[in-house]
Design brief:
Blueprint (H helix, E strand, L loop, with lengths): L4 E4 L2 E4 H30 L3 H27 L19 H28 L3 H31 L3 H12 L3
Antiparallel strand pairs: 1-2
Length: about 170
């Protein structure tokens, strides 16, 4: 099957890859919105450190979206922005928040891996190299969520321990 390329202002990229890159921008922006929704829940629970951690996570996700955004523009490709779904602000517990965080990061990892495979299939070495940073970043993202979940398993219903974790998460810069 012949590859179909799109050409915008001199930028050439496989059509399927470009579509997937634009979809990933939306996923990264939704991730930011999701984490802001989680920050709302944590703020209402007066876990300001946990809320700060999620707000910084949201900021990081926006940076990921902008990284792809600028990459496409540098390649002379068209950026298509789509609507961002409304996130939940209701959770059953702090543990539920971080379980959903890990699950979401696993979803993003799968999406990034598929995006990387699409770049390789399109023989787009520049995109493949660009996406390697995201592949490595997802290992870190899943690791952080898993670590916090592990700590929450130790804490259970120990309020002083939860406050200590809240303080530790609030120290994130």
């Amino acid at each position: 099957m012949a590859q179909v390329f799109v050409n915008y202002e001199g930028g050439i990229m496989d059509k399927k890859l470009l579509k997937a890159m634009n979809e990933q921008i939306n996923k990264e922006m939704f991730s930011a919105y999701l984490y802001l929704g989680m920050a709302v829940y944590l703020e209402k629970k007066t876990l300001l450190g946990c809320s700060k951690w999620m707000q910084l996570q949201a900021k990081e996700e926006m940076e990921h979206a902008m990284k792809i955004f600028h990459y496409l523009l540098e390649r002379g490709c068209e950026v298509e922005l789509d609507a961002i779904a409304k996130p939940s602000v209701d959770y059953s517990s702090v543990k539920d928040v971080f379980q959903k965080t890990l699950k979401h990061e696993q979803f993003v990892t799968a999406s990034i891996n598929k995006l990387y495979e699409t770049a390789v299939a399109a023989n787009d070495n520049a995109a493949g190299i660009f996406l390697q940073w995201f592949v490595a970043e997802q290992v870190e993202e899943e690791s952080h969520a898993s670590e916090i979940l592990g700590q929450l398993d130790y804490i259970k219903d120990d309020s002083p321990a939860m406050l200590m974790l809240d303080k530790a998460l609030g120290a994130r810069t």
